[in-house]
Amino acid sequence: MRKVIVNFSGGKDSTAAILKVLEKYPKDEVLLCYQDTGAEYLETVSHVQQIAVMLELPLVILKPERDFWQEVEHRRFFPTPGLRWCTGKLKQDIFNKWLSGNFRGKGYEIVVVTGIRGDESFSRSKLHEFEDPSDHRIVKSATKLWYPCLYMTAKEVKD
After folding, report:
1. InterPro entries this protein is in (predicted)?
2. Which residue in 13, 4, 8 sits closest to 45, CA to CA?
3. What is the spatial distance between Cα 23 and Cα 148, in angstroms, rounded to a whole number?
4. Average pLDDT over the chain, rounded to whole?
5. What is the rounded CA–CA span in Å between residue 70 and residue 12?
6. Which secondary structure element, helix H or strand E, spans residue 33, and what is its range?
7. Which of 148, 13, 44, 31 is nearest to 99 (CA)?
8. Is 109 left (phi over 0), alpha (psi -120 to 50) or beta?
């Protein structure tokens, strides 16, 4: 059994990643996952749901115990480039917990897909299209990480 889980933000890169996934995998293996940090535009959740319905794909919406604003109040400071607690606390930790709880030890080959592009940052430019999840804090329960948009430019994603 295989499950292809696409981290879907509702943006152009993760939408392009979904389209790449659908070129390679059957719909019944694909699941969209949206992490709601509580700091998104109000329309984002509705947009994500509409795309899932339009593509006839199941969607899971994950929410942390404390949303972004509650976490800022708890920590008494906003995330900074040097201390980026937002991604880890509000997205990666909740995703990994959900992934482990739903798929670990159940015989699934898990492919986790993210729509990041290499031209977005120096560290992302060093990634490979397929990565070993054992090296990543976010997806230890996965079999494979796939970045289908890694070598695409912003223009290619838009087109």
Report:
1. PAPS_reduct_dom, Rossmann-like_a/b/a_fold, Sulfate_adenylyltrnsfr_sub2
2. 8
3. 11
4. 87
5. 28
6. strand 30-35
7. 31
8. beta
